[in-house]
């Protein structure tokens, strides 16, 4: 697994028995998995068993551990991958086994959690527009400007393709800018699919 330097340093600190004894490690690891699976009622810093540990370093280790956990689940890492990664980071066999045991128990729920995160943005299925001409504004000043009322019908990947409507108004210049940007985006997408 590819891990950033910050994550590696945090995990190496977590592996150090001088920094955290095995009992504290076990509590910390359970708290890290719990923080990913449920809305945390309290943070890792609230555990009385972890109060004697430097709090800034504890936060760093928590971020590193949760990043490692999510990366392992994302890549569908097996026992050998997780264990060899942790051993490379100087985890002893007792800590590796404890970590992997919790990883295995939580893996299915974490996979469901990651699968529920939808990154598919709504896409436009239809456009309608109307031209309005504003003669005066609410302050009784003459305006004499055209205004375009645009309505985008969008379809979202989640909610079984539920559609919604996005309405806005714009000037001629804003509409021309929008059309130009949409054409650029379409060309960029076309080039990206040809690679």
TrEMBL record:
Q: Name the domain of life this protein comes from.
A: Eukaryota
Supply the name of the protein.
Uncharacterized protein
Species of origin reads Pangasius djambal
């Amino acid at each position: 697994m590819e891990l950033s330097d910050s994550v590696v340093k945090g995990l190496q600190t977590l592996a150090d028995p001088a920094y955290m004894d095995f009992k504290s490690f076990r509590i910390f690891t359970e708290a890290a998995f719990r923080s990913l699976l449920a809305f945390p009622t309290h943070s890792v810093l609230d555990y009385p068993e972890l109060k004697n540990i430097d709090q800034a370093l504890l936060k760093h280790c928590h971020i590193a551990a949760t990043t490692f956990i999510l990366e392992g689940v994302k890549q569908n890492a097996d026992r050998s991958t997780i264990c060899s990664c942790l051993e490379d980071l100087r985890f002893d066999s007792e800590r590796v086994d404890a970590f992997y045991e919790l990883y295995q128990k939580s893996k299915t729920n974490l996979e469901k959690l990651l699968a529920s995160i939808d990154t598919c943005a709504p896409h436009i299925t239809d456009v309608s527009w109307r031209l309005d001409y504003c003669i005066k504004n609410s302050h009784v000043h003459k305006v004499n400007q055209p205004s375009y009322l645009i309505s985008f019908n969008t379809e979202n990947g989640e909610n079984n393709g539920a559609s919604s409507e996005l309405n806005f108004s714009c000037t001629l210049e804003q509409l021309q800018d929008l059309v130009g940007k949409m054409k650029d985006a379409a060309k960029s997408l076309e080039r990206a699919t040809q690679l």
